[in-house]
Amino acid sequence: MPIWALKWGCPVLCHGTTESSSDTVAHRYAQEQGIYTTQDCRDLYKLRNLDMIIDVTGRDEVANEISQTKPDHVGMMDHVTARLFWRVFHAEEERIAELERSEEALREDRRFLQNVFEAIQDGSELLTMRRHLIGDASEDT
């Protein structure tokens, strides 16, 4: 399980990760994304502008080591808090996606109703023209 070192911003940027093995999916993904990787969490302390370390290992000994050795200005989030944060973040992403789907459905409904309205106007104009034509023809007889 990785330990993430973060710099807050918008969006949150991951500056580094640790893995006990360099042969994990997370480790390979981090390297592919150009994220610094190491097998020793203390190496993360050297990262410039490090604000937070998020421990998602679920191992108390790792959390204790980080807590005792991290620089004072660096915050730490344990795996329980990280999971809660992830769930809240995921729920917010779902809410935003649902809102976007709703907005798109409203735009589609608006386009449909606009087309119906335009068709009604066209039909109304045709009826008016037909009445005039019938009226004009009846006046001629």
Tell me what the structure shows.
The protein is of the alpha/beta class. Helix content is 57%, strand content 15%. A 5-stranded mixed sheet has the order 3-2-1-4-5, sandwiched between helices. It is rod-shaped and about 100 Å long. The N and C termini lie far apart (94 Å). 12% of the residues are buried.
Query: Biggest sheet: strands side by side, in what order?
Result: 3-2-1-4-5
The helix fraction, in percent, is 55-70%
Q: What radius of gyration results from the CA coordinates?
A: 31 Å
Question: Total number of β-strand segments?
Answer: 5
Question: Could you give the distance between the termini?
Answer: 94 Å
Question: What does the largest sheet look like?
Answer: 5 strands, mixed
Percentage of residues in DSSP E strands: 5-15%
What characteristic shape results from the CA principal axes?
rod-shaped
Assembly context of the chains: single chain
Mean pLDDT: 77
Separate helix tally: 3
Order of helices and strands: EEHEEHEH
Low-confidence runs of at least 5 consecutive residues? 5-13
Q: Which structural category do the helix and sheet elements fall into?
A: alpha/beta
Give a short summary of the structure.
With 141 residues, the chain is α/β, with parallel strands linked by helices.
Key attributes of the depicted protein:
141 residues, alpha/beta, 5 strands, 57% helix
How is the secondary structure organized here?
Elements lengths: L2 E5 L5 E6 L6 H8 L3 E3 L13 E4 L4 H10 L5 E3 L1 H62 L1
Parallel strand pairs: 2-3, 4-5
Antiparallel strand pairs: 1-2, 1-4
